């Protein structure tokens, strides 16, 4: 079993910044992919950013240039630095892990709310 706990969410004005953190515990493997997804009310859940064991990153077009994902394998943590926030970024943000060779993300945190006011 894997447990993921997000922190760092909150309320921020448009143009501001927030840093989300995710602490992972349990059976975490070095080759796991770690990612952040988000879901706004009435909208589909979408991948925001992902980072592989080798450090390769992938971002949604809507956040490219504004968000940055990073990981610390020694501490089993993943972070999402969010800059130049927009009201459209308002959503519940989820930390997730995908095992090497798995088709889907199999482990999820409970989410952290990010609200950006105009």
How is this structure best described in words?
By secondary structure, the chain is mostly beta strands. The protein is 0% helix and 53% strand. The protein is built from no helices and 11 strands. The strands form 2 sheets. Strands 2, 4, 5, 6, 9, 10 and 11 form a 7-stranded mixed sheet that branches. A 4-stranded antiparallel sheet has the order 1-3-8-7, with no helix packed on it. A hairpin with an 8-residue loop joins strand 9 (91-98) and strand 10. The radius of gyration is 13 Å and the shape is globular. The protein starts with a strand and ends with a strand. 30% of the residues are buried. The mean pLDDT is 96.
Mean pLDDT: 96
Radius of gyration: 13 Å
What is the 3D form?
A: globular
Largest sheet: 7 strands, mixed
Work out the number of β strands. Answer: 11
What percentage of the residues does DSSP assign to strands (E)?
over 45%
Note the main attributes of this structure.
mainly beta; seven-stranded mixed beta sheet; single chain; four-stranded antiparallel beta sheet; 118 residues
Please sum up the structure shown.
This protein is mainly beta and 118 residues long. Helices cover 0% and strands 53% of the residues. The protein is globular, with a radius of gyration of 13 Å.
Q: What is the topology?
A:
Blueprint: E1 2-7, E2 10-13, E3 18-26, E4 33-39, E5 46-51, E6 57-59, E7 67-72, E8 77-82, E9 91-98, E10 107-108, E11 112-117
